[in-house]
Design a protein that fits this description.
Blueprint (H helix, E strand, L loop, with lengths): L3 E10 L7 E11 L4 E5 L6 H8 L7 E3 L2 E4 L2 E2 L5 H10 L1 E4 L3 H4 L6 H12 L7 H12 L6 H12 L5 H4 L9 H13 L5 E5 L7 H18 L2 E6 L2 H7 L2 E6 L2 E7 H6 L4 H7 L49 E4 L2 E3 L2 H5 L11 H4 L3 E5 L5 E5 L4
Parallel strand pairs: 3-9, 3-10, 7-8, 8-9
Antiparallel strand pairs: 1-2, 1-4, 1-5, 5-6, 10-11, 11-13, 12-13, 14-15
Helix pairs in contact: 4-6, 4-8, 6-8
Bound molecules: adenosine-5'-triphosphate and magnesium ion.
The site of magnesium ion (MG) has 3 residues, from α1.
């Protein structure tokens, strides 16, 4: 059984006086126990909205799904009180912006100890008043189990001098250290799943590599699954076991990391991979596909990628199909369901995309012109 199993997720933001924004439009996402699953896509593709829907942290949005199971139970059937326990106890979250996610007026040790007391297996509860006094006046005693656990967790995530660092405030730490503090905090409740939304985007590459190694180690050694959101395929190559590729609110492809890099199926994935040099290191940008993704309110019917796709043809205006390439590998592309041979995607036909006439290679290996119908 998948740890997280979401089918046909749709997230809509009602907009006063304008068309509603369908940020996520039929997404399937599954995270297996013990794996790091990557969720990759350009800016605006709906990665964060998908992640926040798992935490049920989308105020004002209409969230619908055919299935939304965590450990086999429907997350959207839980009460808000049950959800508060799940956030932190079962599912931890790490955000990109550590400066605004951490409390600036509490020591980092205090912030981790608080999670340990509320969600972990340490019981020091003594009522709201003493908790507030402890939080803002006296601080947690350094001999309290929750404090000792906080120091231990700082050590677990690779912080040197954890006992000293625990007594510092967020602004006294580097960006990389703060990111590690957030991971320690997420671990405080002993979760089964950590959702990390672009946890290393603001960091330089060496610091990023250290943190990704840390996530990999936590997954391997501490029985934590991770949903890792990134727009960097290099990060996926180095860190993830499997990956879901999103584009403008839809899933284009899902595969093991190996399948994705060795046998990409979707033209969008193939386009993204053009930007990843041998070895996987990238400058972190997915920019080599000409054009830009449509706003949610301006998506064409059918495949949202068809206006940028060099292989687009008439069928692409139809609803997205589902094609199983191999065990654990699926793509949503009409080339596979409508043609005997999907052919190669002629990415070097870039110049033709704007003209609406592009080339796909047919069986004979000769490029054949294909009209892209306007949506
Ligand atoms: N509260 C909101 N109200 C209206 N639209 C929203 C809201 N939140 C997100 N959106 C829209 O939903 C779409 C998906 O946004 P999301 O933040 O999930 O993208 P993302 O893939 O995380 O991008 P990035 O890589 O920039 O973080 C965007 O078009 C965004 O403008
Ligand atoms: Mg985001």
């Amino acid at each position: 059984m998948s740890l997280l199993d979401v089918e046909n997720l749709r997230v809509t933001f009602p907009v006063d006086g304008g068309p509603d924004v369908r940020a996520v439009d039929g997404v399937d996402i599954a995270v297996e126990p013990g794996e790091i699953h990557g969720l990759v896509g350009e800016s605006g593709s709906g990665k964060s909205v998908t992640a926040r829907s798992v935490m049920r942290l989308l105020d004002g949005a209409v969230v619908e799904a055919d299935r939304f199971d965590y450990r086999g139970e429907d997350l959207y059937a839980k009460s808000e009180a049950e959800m508060r326990t799940i956030r932190g106890d079962d599912i931890g979250m790490v955000f990109q912006d550590s400066m605004s996610a951490l409390n600036p007026v509490m020591t980092v040790g205090e912030q981790i100890a608080e999670v340990v007391r509320h969600h972990g297996d340490v019981d020091e509860s003594a009522g709201l008043l003493s908790e507030l006094r402890r939080k803002y006046v006296t601080g947690t005693s350094e001999t309290a189990p929750s404090w000792r656990r906080a120091v231990e967790l700082l050590e677990t995530v690779g912080i040197a001098d954890p006992a000293d660092v625990a007594t510092t405030y967020p602004h006294q730490l580097s960006g990389g250290q703060r990111q590690r503090v957030m991971i320690a905090q997420a671990l405080g409740g002993d979760p089964s799943l950590i959702i990390a939304d672009e946890p290393t985007t603001a960091l330089d590459v060496t610091v990023e590599a250290g943190i990704l190694d840390e996530l990999r180690r936590l997954c391997d050694e501490m029985d934590v699954s991770i949903l890792l959101i990134t727009h960097d395929l290099g990060v996926v190559a180095e860190t993830c076991d499997s990956v879901t590729v999103m584009y403008s609110g839809s899933v284009m492809e899902r595969a093991s990391t190996e399948q994705l890099f060795q046998h990409p199926a979707h033209p969008y994935t193939k386009g993204l991979l053009r930007s990843v040099p041998e070895g996987g290191a990238t400058d972190g940008e997915l920019t080599t596909i000409p054009g830009s993704a449509p706003e949610p309110t301006e998506r064409p019917d059918g495949c949202p990628f068809r206006d940028r796709c060099p292989a687009a043809f008439e069928a692409c205006a139809d609803p997205l199909p589902e094609h199983v390439v191999d065990a654990g590998h699926a793509t949503r592309c009409h080339l596979y369901t409508e043609r005997d041979d999907p052919g190669e995607v002629a990415w070097d036909a870039d110049a033709d995309i704007d003209a609406g006439v592009t080339a796909v290679t047919d069986d004979s290996g000769e490029p054949s012109p294909t009209e892209v119908t306007d949506g």
